[in-house]
Specification:
The chain is mostly helical. Helix content is about 85%, strand content about 5%. It contains two helices and two strands. The protein has helices spanning about 20-90, 95-185, and strands at about 1-5, 10. The chain has a two-stranded antiparallel ribbon. It is rod-shaped, with a radius of gyration of 38 Å.
């Protein structure tokens, strides 16, 4: 084993009179090293994507909580409005028969307000559920894409690792064979 000052790498092969061309071995090792670096970079990118998706899920959860909170506030506000209208209605009951006609109209207004409030609540709830469902679906698709990409990178990494192991095994075998032949050719 010797240190190659030109490339800054330590070579696993000794220079021999016969055997593989050093440049080809170095080029192949360099290519394998680049592939391993690419796989490592891809894994870092997947980790970054996963962290981004987790932040997105948290953001959607925060938005959902905010929508639920504002819906509750709106319900409280509408109930307060309704209570105020009821108070006004109660005060009208003491007025003369002409005001009784207005009381009847006020009841109709209250029913319409209640229906409108229920309709608004139902629409807000449906819209929030749709947004949550869409966010969960997007997050699930993104997670599946990330998992598939990670699996592909793992397969590529294993293939490169197996190719490197095979290459090293063959190189060792050839080196041993070469040494045996050199030893046999000595007088």
């Amino acid at each position: 084993m010797f240190h190659d000052s030109a490339s800054g790498r330590q070579n696993l092969f000794t220079i021999a009179f016969r055997g593989y061309a050093r440049e080809e071995v170095d080029a192949h090792l360099s290519q394998l090293e680049k592939q391993i670096e690419q796989v490592a970079n891809d894994l870092r990118e997947i980790k970054h994507d996963r962290e981004h998706l987790e932040r997105e899920v948290k953001r959607f959860q925060t938005e959902r909580e905010s929508l639920e909170s504002s819906s509750r506030q709106e319900i409280v506000r509408l109930k307060a409005e309704l209570d105020e209208v009821k108070l006004e209605r109660d005060s009208f009951e003491t007025v003369a028969s002409q005001l009784r006609l207005q009381e009847s109209q006020t009841h109709e207004i209250l029913r319409a307000a209640q229906k409108a409030a229920e309709s608004l609540r139902a629409e807000a709830k449906l819209e929030a559920e749709d947004m949550i469902r869409e966010a969960e679906n997007r997050a699930a698709r993104s997670n599946e894409d990330a998992r598939a990409r990670l699996e592909e990178l793992r397969r590529r990494y294993e293939a490169v690792r197996k190719e490197l192991d095979s290459f090293l095994s063959q190189t060792r075998s050839l080196a041993h064979s070469f040494i045996r032949k050199v030893d046999e050719s000595r007088p």
